[in-house]
Amino acid sequence: MNLQIKGKEELRHLLNSWYNEICGEHLEKAASLKKELDLRVEEITGEEEVHTYFHLLNFRYEILLGEVSEETHRKIDQIGEVDDKQIMYHYHLFKAVYATNKAHFNEAKVHFAKLQEIDGVINGVKEKAELDYRLAIFYYQIYQPFASIKHVMQAEKVFQTFSGNEVLLASCENIYGLCSSTIGKFGQAEVYFLSALDKAKKVKSERWEKKIKHNLGLLYADQGNPELAVKYLSDSLRDNLKTVFLLAREHYKMGHRDEVNQLILKGYDLCNEEYQHHFNILKELNEPSSIENLEFVIKEGILYFENEELWKYVVDYFEVIAVQLHTEGNAVKASEYFYEAYQAKQKTENKGVLK
């Protein structure tokens, strides 16, 4: 990346270097440069454009670390709309990355759309590759694997031409694996994940090793192998919301009710709005009170998933309540929910989400 920042040459160089290390997910190098920049805060404050970019990049750095402070949010929100196209480009890009990570997909969509309106700002193929990479992650998260594959192919092609992108190349293979799993090509997905895991091990990226093991666990869960899923999930991310939910769900499949309850309690401590619904539904399945209560929590969840256009979950949960109703002998109402699931699945297929 090469930010076109006015100001002292040395500060520009430091900020560009920091941005490159952040984008490459080189945590130690990024942390070292952050310390160096912190020591020069008075110089940074004295250069208005440099100061703005420092706060933008600090936002992006904290996104990488997984925790954005209230102070950073406040400083970013103060930027607002300005005339500088490059500042606006990175503002919306970083906001899109943050919203995607937080599962605020409609918000992320707005920021990605804003990027399309800003012309002539992308500085070279690396910057374009970063955008494609982020779009690939976004489209996977909203269950549009073919759009995700299109963008990750473009990003990977660029990453392969520059040194220092080993972590990103492992991540690209990880995205291929996720998309392959989504479209039901489980054998292909496993090959991609194992290749990604090998790349992560070679560069000693424990962070990515754990992410990829999480996704191997997800793959085996999707294949109906809860024992193998739990093995990989237990050796993956700790205190990660998705991992905790998947572990709880797979233990539920094996009838481990106590383990499920413990994981649900842990999940509630980590919850965002999306996973609040997942855990509420799983809790009702694990400790059933009545079919009416299950129907209520599922319908609440479906309202959220429809609003976020997460159609896969709409399909899944309509089918869950339909099966439960059918089991209880209410075939008429069950058939209504099966039809709702069918209609939701049509929406996913129209978007190229499921095949």
Description:
The protein is mainly alpha-helical and 355 residues long. Among the domains are: 1-121, Serine Threonine Protein Phosphatase 5, Tetratricopeptide repeat (Alpha Horseshoe), CATH 1.25.40.10; 288-355. It is built from 19 helices and no strands. It has helices at 9-23, 27-38, 41-46, 48-65, 70-79, 85-101, 105-117, 124-141, 145-159, 166-182, 186-202, 206-222, 226-234, 241-253, 257-270, 273-286, 291-307, 311-327, 331-350. Helix 4 (48-65) runs parallel beside helix 6 (85-101), helix 8 runs antiparallel to helix 9 and helix 10 (166-182) packs parallel to helix 12 (206-222). The longest helix is centred in the last third of the chain and has 20 residues, at 331-350. The protein is globular, with a radius of gyration of 22 Å. The two termini are 37 Å apart.
Question: Which percent range fits the helix content?
Answer: over 70%
CATH homologous superfamily of one domain? Tetratricopeptide repeat domain
Radius of gyration: 22 Å
Range of strand content:
under 5%
Second-tier CATH architecture of one domain: Alpha Horseshoe
Total beta-strand segments: 0
Q: Segments where pLDDT lies below 50 for 5+ residues?
A: none
Structural class: mainly alpha
Which assembly state applies to the chains in this document? single chain
H/I helix tally: 19
CATH topology of one domain: Serine Threonine Protein Phosphatase 5, Tetratricopeptide repeat
Task: Provide mean pLDDT, rounded.
Answer: 92
Shape: globular
CATH class of one domain: Mainly Alpha
Distance between the termini: 37 Å
Biggest sheet descriptor: none
SSE run: HHHHHHHHHHHHHHHHHHH
Pfam families: RapH_N (PF18801)
InterPro entries: TPR-like_helical_dom_sf
Protein name: Response regulator aspartate phosphatase
